[in-house]
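Next comes one such specimen:
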Amino acid sequence: EDFGAAETVVDAQLRDTGNSFAARRTDIMLLRFADRLNEAEARLAALQAEHPDDAGLWLDQGELLARRGLPREAGERFAAVLAREPASIRARVGLADSLWARGDIAAARQAIEALQADAPEHPAVQRLQRAWQRNQRPMLVTAATLGLGQGQVAGNDDLIWESTLYSGMFADGVRVFANHHLARAKFDGNQARHARAGMGIELTRRDWQVAAEIGRDLDNGQDVAWSVSGSRQFGDHLSVRARHDSQTNDFPLKGRMPDA
């Protein structure tokens, strides 16, 4: 993506058309795609001050808000466009995407199915459908941190490896998962480790998500452990999250050594 070349073309359009309305909208769209969101927002606000009732600018604003990670505010803009132009595919795609981002999986699925029926060849509909299909598949999330050091630093060689395998999504927002945690470190010639495996279920609904897991330590007594977590979103700017673990993985490894 050569945004520099595209910007040269748009600058020429702005110059040749005397800063026409269409050229200014194109300029805003380019800035949005280039992730220059503050500039795009400022120019869009200036254009909206001149054309406050233009539904196309409401659509541009919704897409900018979505790019900023504000799906509720974006959804309001898309809904306003659809109230005036019910056939707008871009607004319907944006609204479906905002419902999905809020966790309203059932409503998003219905909106995407309706778009597939009404406009299966539309590029935006096809992009949304491909993203939806990817999201429905099983997925593996894994992260490892390896530390290697020199000198007489206790625990200077350590490893933390966390992996979670999620099932495909079913029942409009439900996944089951399996989790494995491994932590290992060396202390002055000794070695400590902690490993745990577990299974759980995750439920996503509009503006909230909960998960529960039960597992067992693979060493250190093979204790059974469980956890519950939840999150609640209040608008686009405030969320509350909580978690309880009967036995935490976040425990100094030196304390897990047999002679500690």
